[in-house]
Amino acid sequence: MKCRCGRDAIIFRPYEGVALCSRHFLKSFEKRVFKTIRKHGMLKSGDRVAVAISGGADSQVLLELLNKIISPRHDMEIFALAVDEGIEGYRSKTLKYAKALTEEKGIELHLFSFKELLGKTLDEKVREVGRDQACLYCSIGRRWILNRAARELGATKLATGHNLNDEAETILMNWIRGDLFRAARYGAITDWAITQTKSQLFIPRIKPLRESPESECTLYARLKGFRFSRRICPYKGGIRREIWRFLKRFESRHPGISFSILHTFDKLLPLIRQYAEEREGPLVTCRKCGELSSEPVCRRCQLWP
Ligand SMILES: [Zn+2]
Ligand SMILES: [Zn+2]
After folding, report:
1. CATH of the structural domain 11-303, one choice from 3.60.15.10, 3.40.50.980, 3.40.50.620, 3.90.1720.10
2. Diameter of the chain by CA atoms?
3. Segments making up each domain of the chain, as ranges
4. How many angstroms is it from 302 CA to the middle of ligand 2?
5. If you measure from the C-alpha of residue 34 to the centroid of ligand 1, how many angstroms do you get, rounded to a whole number?
6. Cα(70) to centroid of ligand 1, in Å?
7. What are phi and psi of 127, to 5 degrees?
């Protein structure tokens, strides 16, 4: 297959019917991410952006592209955050890559750990609560740490490396569970809690890669020569993994279905938010940790007492 420029193609995008050479793929990939950022107003003058990095391909791509936008500007700042959940033989390796990349780019990196902030490593917790619960305990703990760390370090935005596949997966999960309140907090910029409460406690999260398929994020990282781990978290399992597999199969038979899931969700989001606003009680501050919560004691303090 040939690219429109005549060079050999390295990728065919079935959802567009387009083949691209490496040069035009890189260009088109970046253009799409920049367009996502613009379309949703993810960045503005005066922003200090915390980028959550894990050492995986996605978060390195995210750091590269945000740095490309922010580093030439004098009215924005960027720094990186990483969380060590304490997963033996997995995270220590990916964190090594994260450190290397931030050093190379001269971006400050702040590292936090479950052990230090939640009292236990994820491995220790999983031994108590069982493997099936790992993703729940991990995501609640991570989100709490990232939000608090970003705020204490003066960030105005928290960027995460969620790609199109992650987004479609989560949308389907919330759909299946019928969890409209959780869905209401989703979207391109998760600032709904702030507009609701006018609180400064919550740092809006942005997801510039949400319209970029996982396979293309990985290809971009490879072409850029990033070193990253391909290992999947040893705890990834349960319904999320099944939906991930289902979407992969579905996408290969019906190219573009993940985009469609995402865009349909974006169109419905104002309605979902309206529904949630009318029914959900106001957010309060957690009695134990003081963070925003929909219950008197937040999920983090319930799960990680
Ligand atoms: Zn080309
Ligand atoms: Zn709490």
Report:
1. 3.40.50.620
2. 63
3. 11-303
4. 7
5. 20
6. 27
7. -65, -25
